[in-house]
Amino acid sequence: MKLTQNTFICLIIKIAILCFGFNRITANTPPQKDLLNPKELRVEYLENPMGITVLSPRFSWLLEGNGRNRTQSAYQILVSSSKKKLEEDQGDTWDSGKVSSHNTNQVVYAGDDLISNTDYYWKVKIWDESNQESEWSEPAHWSMGLLNFSDWQGQFISHDVGYDTTDKYDSLYLPPARYLRKSFQITKKIKRATVYSTALGLYELRLNGEKVGDDYFAPGWTDYDERLYYQTYDITHSIKQGDNAIGAVIADGWYAGYIGYALLVRLDKVREFYGVNPSFMGQLHIQYEDGTEEVLATDSTWKSNEGPVREADILMGEKYDARLEHSGWDTPGYDDQGWKTPKVYTYPDGKLEAHPGSLIKNIERLRPVKMTEPEPGTYIFDLGKNFAGIAELKVEGPAGTEVRLRFGEILKQDGNIQTENLRLARATDTYILKGEGVEVWQPKFTYHGFQYVEVTGYPGKPILDAITGIVLSSIKTDASTFKTSNEMNNTLYENIKTTQEANFFDIPTDCPQRDERLGWTGDAQTYMRSATYNADVASFMTKFLVDLDDAQRWYGAYPNFAPFPYSRPDQYSPAWMDAGIIIPYNMYKVYNDKRILEFMYNGMEKFMEFQADASTNFIRPGGGNNWGDWLAVDEETSKGYIGASFYGYDAKLMAEIAEVLGRKQDAQKYRDLFENIKKAFSEKYILPDGRTTEDTQTTYALALYFDLFPENLEEKGAARLAEKIEKNSFKFSSGFLGTKHVMLALSKYGYHDLAYKLFKQTEYPSWGYSVENGSTSIWERWNSYTKNDGENSDLNAKMNSFSHYAFGSVAEWMFLHAAGIGTEDGGYRNIRIKPDISKEVDFINGSYKSINGTITSSWKWQGNKVIMTVNIPVNTKAKVHIPIENISDLREGNKKIAKVPSIKVVTTNEKEAILEIGSGTYSFSFKYAP
Ligand code: BGC
To answer: Given this model, what pLDDT does residue 789 score?
Structure first.
């Protein structure tokens, strides 16, 4: 190359910079790597949470940085009582000092006692593998809520709307919402103002004309006699000098309204499971600049009234008469002379705590894709996908005009909505116009599962924007990405996520549309691992496990659903009650959460005792309300088999849980129990030729996946499962319990092509069948609907939801096996990358944001070679399983493996090589050995 004068000058400058750079470091220091930087700081899984009640909160952060094999060798956390102190690096509440540790999550606070109603500020810095110190992270904060019952000065207040004592079975009782308000004056400069609020029922808090916070359905659903959650909001900047007004609207909600199928099956109660009258409690803590403090709490000096919300029920819908609005009722200066003195209630025995999960939010707004008019004056808005939430109505017309909204998941052939599957959920919202220009309305205390909104009574012909879909959910499914060459499967993945969002609604509900919407435990346990791949469900599931623990039956069984509002005693079932072990186990696996295992442990032991008592010779019988392999088609697995196999699985998981918690003796006890169950189980259900006595897909899938096959017969059992699937033209005959385990068992025993064939199948029964039928969600049943019969297939339309996540449990297989992203221990610090390679697809691209950072695993065919790209986050390691016969055929980039110092070959055999890698991006190419 010819050097021009300019390039020569540049070169000199570069050399000078380099020399200068080296001089600044000492002569012997190796060149500096990029610093690792802690980011995304969280406390108890939440970003800057307000008002927590966990006394030793857990911290976590993620690390960002380039290069391979980057790790954290130490950290330091500072917690300060003020922003200023934190800026000055004064950890006056806690200075952890430099702690030699790889941990970036589940780091337990160990400073001064945390004080009620107090803000804390924190930051973290880390040292990397070469002991290079990072910068301090961006500051984060959290606040402690009211920690003692005695901190509560407020009373539960409500408005007396009378009580309708008539029959509740044949006509609906839907009392109006209650309005509560209070004016107050602020005359001094405010430093900090916080409001703590809750309700027995549902509430929306208002301050100076605005909604406080962005939560829906607060305070969430618990068994209210066990515990009640409250919310904390920072209102420092919403309070004004001079006059202010605070208010709340409250409604029956889960506390007093219709819940589940009670009305349908005419239980002893159909509503008011926890109490009759909803009530609200709140208090405002104001700290002034001058150091004084003031508390303004709910009491009988507040004022109460009815208002425009005439009916408000989760299942039945909401009715709003805008003519009855109290204009300005939640703003200062409103004259509340006509309002009444509220009724005061007590909340006797339960616990008041901060909501540990994630509250419901509006996660998306949907513009209709189409409007049709199947009958004159009946307008159907298509919102493009089946979700849970409400419709916002925009309308202009004469006062008194009544617009009615009804909701449906599918359309009948005549273009009208199908509502039969809502059963007794009336799911109807009504808006009565006040006639003052454009009116925009959203209900507050009801929600529906729908894609279509039927609008009747609209004044004139609505435009498309008359309806907006308000998608509500406790979670966002943004933790993963998945793409493959088969487009149907990409749609399936979207449908799974849509259905998870629709049902992760304070609790994991079975469905969002009909009169059910309960936290069915069988659905939740089967879907748990899938849920974690799609979304960060750590705090959501923590909340649900508290519900489950609260709802555990006194005799040890976990119930069919939690919370458990009904008074029926025998509500448990094999594979449903096992949620009490399977969900916490997965919390450990995915989030490295041992605290939840400790919290649940006594209950789990009690449950194991209950099962032991119910068993004869280690075989747990069917028992309870056993649904077997619910919604299986063509083949039936006995209820006894389901009961016995899940008992074995529980024992296996309990042994691991006890080990993780350092309870060695218990671990041995459960290992022994597992061996005993396995022996009894195989004697009873497994024949000498490796077949099961019942020979259904589900029987093989469960026993193989749960390790209940005798070692010498498992290959035969797996081969029989494969043979059955082939004979069944690569289609399922399994239900809620069997299906995902069929996929997992096939992968476990190397039947990858078969698993992909099932995954890609489009003929009934398969996932593809619903996608081909235009579904945007996961159906309750394999054949919920067919294109040829819009009225439904041969099934009872009333027991047919189009938004049930249980069959979406294939997401677990998609990530664990198709993309191959798994964890060896708790929390993806020791990652396992083991994709199932098959000619059935051209490529799989997967990524998953774990508690230790984002892991990606992609593979594709290039001729007869496979290219595999893996990215492992900082501070983690991975064992990568490469299906290859000869290690010398394996390349990373364009180098032979032996030439890549950052890769360690752990083992090789004639089927695979296992490599150990640290953080960084790797690209492998090899010839596949099936
Ligand atoms: C629910 C299911 C649930 C089941 C128990 C149904 O009504 O929708 O998802 O698990 O009952 O069989």
So the answer is: 55
Q: What is the DSSP string of 441-473?
A: E--SS--EEEEEEEEES-SSPPPGGGEEEEEEE
State whether the beta carbon of 630 lies less than 6 angstroms from ligand 1: yes
Cα 392 to chain centroid, rounded: 25
What is the CB-side half-sphere exposure of residue 179 using CA atoms within 13 A?
21
Question: What is the β-pairing status of strands 448-456 and 467-473?
Answer: unpaired
Provide the pLDDT for residue 626.
81
> How far is it, in rounded angstroms, from Cα 781 to Cα 778?
9
| pLDDT grade for 401, boundaries at 50, 70 and 90 | very high
- State the Cα–Cα distance between residues 692 and 720, nearest whole angstrom: 9
The model's pLDDT over 551-601, given as tens digits with 9 standing for 90+, comes to: 999 999 999 999 999 987 778 999 999 999 999 999 999 999 999 999 999
Residue 61 in tokens: 């952060």
Ligand 1 centroid to residue 522 C-alpha, Å: 8
Cα 558 to middle of ligand 1, angstroms: 15
Query: How far apart, in whole angstroms, are the C-alpha atoms of residue 609 and residue 598?
Result: 17
392 is known as an active-site residue: no
CA distance 638 to 620: 13
- Tens of pLDDT, residue by residue over 497-532, are 999 999 999 999 999 999 999 999 999 999 999 999
CB atoms within 10 A of CB 730: 18
- DSSP label at residue 762: -
Residues in contact with 624: Cβ distance below 8 Å, sequence separation at least 6, in sequence order = 557, 570, 571, 572, 573, 574, 576, 577
Among 31, 38, 32, which residue's Cα sits nearest to residue 874?
A: 38
Q: Read off the tokens for 34.
A: 């990029």
Ligand 1 mutation target, pool 520, 527, 736, 803, most atoms within 8 A of CB: 520
Which of ligand 1's atoms lies nearest the C-alpha of 627?
A: 12
Alpha carbon 648 to its chain's center: 27
Cis peptide before 176 (omega within 30 of 0): no
| Residue 516 a catalytic site member | yes
Residue 178 CA, distance from chain mean position: 31
Q: What is the largest CA-CA distance in the chain?
A: 99
What does pTM read for this prediction? 0.95
